[in-house]
User: What shape does this take?
Amino acid sequence: MKVAVIGGGASGIMCAIFLAKNGQDVVLLEKNSSLGKKLLITGKGRCNVTNNTTGEEFLKNVVRGAKFLISSENKFNSSCTMQFFEDLGVKLKIERGKRVFPESDRAQTILDALILALKQQKVKVRLNCNVQDVLVKDGKATGIVVNNNEELFDAVVLATGGLSYKTTGSTGDGYVFAKKLGHKITELRPALNGIKILNGETAGLEGLSLKNVKIRAKNNKKCIYESEIGEMLFTHVGISGPIVLTASSFINREDVKVIEIDFKPALSVEFLQNKINNIIKENGAKRVSSLIGSLLPKTMAEMFINKLNISKDTLINQLSKETRQKICTLLKNYPLTYGGVEDVMFSVITSGGVDLSEVSPKDMQSKLISGLFIIGELLDIDALTGGFNLQIAFSTAVACASSKFFIGEN
Ligand SMILES: Cc1cc2nc3c(=O)[nH]c(=O)nc-3n(C[C@H](O)[C@H](O)[C@H](O)COP(=O)(O)OP(=O)(O)OC[C@H]3O[C@@H](n4cnc5c(N)ncnc54)[C@H](O)[C@@H]3O)c2cc1C
Assistant: This one.
C-alpha cells in the first residue's frame, strides 16, 4: 500500500520505518528542512529515549490515556525500544529513575540511528514539505494536499506532534486536520511546565533551588494535588523544577488558587514548634532573621519574615506565641498565589488532543475515517518526565504500522 506519514518527528519516523519493514510503500513528509528537530532538544540535548520499565509501572507515569496505551505498550514497550536502538548500533545507558539515554549523551545519536533505519528500509523522505490538508472520500482517507497539489495514497498517518516549541515544526497542524475530518479535540493544555506566581511574590528569588520540599495545589476549599518530596526552583515568573513540572500535568485543568510550599515535609508542626521553642530557650537573644535563616535558605528568609509582619531584628525571645505558631504554619504551608501553568509554547508536552474514544487503541486507526491513523503527541495522551513521552510516540507508531489494515485483513 502507498502510505503517507505526515510529520518527521519521533512517532512519524518510527512509524515510517516499521511500515516499510512490513512491506508498505512509505513516504515520510516533513515540513522542516531536516527530520527530528524536536528530538534533538529532548532530554536537554541528551534525549531520554525511553524508561527502562514496562507494564503497570510504565502506565503509572501516564497522566492521560493510560488505559488506551495498554495494547500498544504491550506490543512495543521500552525493552523493544532499547533493542531497536541497540540493533542499530546505539549504546545505551540507564540513569536515575530508570531513564534511558544514549551513552554518547547526544540526542543526535538517536536521530542518526533513526535516519539510518529509514535508509535501510528505503523510506522516501520528503523534506520542506508542508502538508496542507488530508483528503477523504466516502469515509476513507485517500490522500493529502501538498503545495496545492492533491497526491493520492491508500492510507494517511497523522504524526504532526503537539503545540509546544513551535520552532521545531510542531505547530498543531494535526489538530486542525483531525478536527476538519470530524474528530473531537479535547482541550489543549500545557503540561510538564513551570507555574506562574502572581503579585511578584517570588520576585528576587530567581535561580534559587530548594531540595527536599513538597508543594500542594489548593482551591478555596481543598487540596487538589500534593507532590512527592523533591526539588523545585524559582524562575523569573514563578516556580519550576521536577516537582513543579509534574504538578503542572495534574493541575492544568483545575481551578487552583494557591500553591503552598512545605519546606519541611518530613517534620510535623508539633516537632517544628518544639524545635523553635528549644532554640529560643537556648539562645533567646538571637534575631528572628537568624532563626529563619537557620531554617531556610538566606535569600528566602526576608520574604518569609515579611509575611510575619514583624521586624527582622526582633529578638526571638520576644516572639509572641501566635508568631511562633505562624512561623511553623508557614514552614509547612507557605502560600503563593497561583497564576496558571506557563504557556503551552514552552511546555515539554501538550496535554489534550484527538479524543481517544474516536481512535482504535489497537492500531491507532480513526474510528471515523478508514485508513486514517493518528499517533504520537497529537493524541490526547501525556505522561510525566522520564522518557515516557517518547516511548508513547514509539508504541503508538509501531501499533499503527502493524495494523491489519495494511496487510489487507480489514
Ligand atoms: C524541550 C523538550 C524536551 C523533551 N525531552 C523529552 C525527553 O527527554 N524524553 C521524552 O520521552 N520526551 C521528551 N519530550 C517530549 C517529546 O519530544 C515528544 O513527546 C515527542 O517529540 C512527540 O513526538 P511526535 O512525533 O508526536 O511529535 P514531534 O516530535 O513534535 O514531531 C512532529 C513533526 O511533524 C512535523 N509537522 C507538523 N506539521 C506538519 C505538516 N503540516 N506537514 C509536514 N510536517 C509537519 C513537525 O515539523 C515535526 O517534525 C521533550 C519535549 C520538549 C519540548
Remarks:
- The mean pLDDT is 96.
- Residues 107-120 form the longest helix (14 residues).
- The domain at 194-342 is CATH 1.10.8 (Helicase, Ruva Protein; domain 3).
